[in-house]
Amino acid sequence: MSLTQEAVKELFEYREDGSLLRRKSIMGNGNYAGRKVGTTPKMTRNSRYSMTKVHGEHWCVHKLIYLYHHGVVPKHLDHINGDTSDNRIENLREATAAQNMQNRKTFANNKSGHKGVAWSKFHSKWFVYMNVNKVRINHGYFDDLEEAALAASELRKIHHGSFASKN
């Protein structure tokens, strides 16, 4: 079954804090009218997003909110501030898969603490790089980590525009 904007508005009420409340109780499963929908991200298989069931189908809460406001569900949605628990409509935007990746946070195993900055053992310097349209751009070597981080940030602004994450 394809979910429509009208059906979502009939089932849920959107709150300015980015949450959805049930309008009607569903007997037998604890989903009562006025109750906030969605699991906490840690409880879900896909641990980054709050999920709920609608007519037996699993839905990400942020996709329901986007459908509630815009009447469509794009293939990819981006949380502008990078916080996947912040589902306020002003924090959601349509994106391509590449744009969504551009706005990701720095990976936990990143040793420099900055996106696009790595240590080169061979050169004994910080190396700045990024991928653009599946092509690696080598931006150069830097003695100073902060200088390399600034260069990487500027490179992201040029190539990623408004999807360039802060770090």
Question: Layout of SSEs?
Answer:
Blueprint: H1 5-11, E1 12-14, E2 20-22, E3 51-54, E4 57-60, H2 61-70, E5 77-79, E6 92-94, H3 97-102, E7 117-120, E8 125-132, E9 135-142, H4 145-160
Antiparallel strand pairs: 1-2, 3-4, 5-6, 7-8, 8-9
Helix pairs in contact: 1-2
Describe the structure.
This protein has 167 residues and is of the alpha+beta class. The protein folds into 2 domains: 5-95, Homing Intron 3 (I-Ppo) Encoded Endonuclease, Chain A; 105-163, AP2/ERF domain (GCC-box Binding Domain). 23% of the residues lie in helices and 24% in strands. It is built from 4 helices and 9 strands. The protein has helices at residues 5-11, 61-70, 97-102, 145-160; strands at 12-14, 20-22, 51-54, 57-60, 77-79, 92-94, 117-120, 125-132, 135-142. The strands form 4 sheets. It has a 3-stranded antiparallel beta sheet with strand order 7-8-9, with helices on one face. β8 and β9 (135-142) form a beta hairpin. α1 packs across α2. It starts with a helix and ends in a 7-residue tail after the last helix.
Largest sheet: spatial strand order: 7-8-9
Q: Overall 3D geometry?
A: elongated
How many helices? The count is 4
Domain module count: 2
End-to-end separation: 40 Å
Tell me roughly what share of residues is in helical segments: 10-25%
Helix/strand-derived category reads: alpha+beta
Low-confidence stretches: none
What is CATH's topology name of the largest domain? Homing Intron 3 (I-Ppo) Encoded Endonuclease, Chain A
- What would CATH call the architecture of the largest domain? Alpha-Beta Complex
Our estimate of the beta-strand percent is 15-25%
Instruction: State the total count of DSSP E strands.
Output: 9
H-E order: HEEEEHEEHEEEH
Determine Rg (CA atoms, Å): 20 Å
CATH level 1 class label of the largest domain: Alpha Beta
Major sheet description: 3 strands, antiparallel
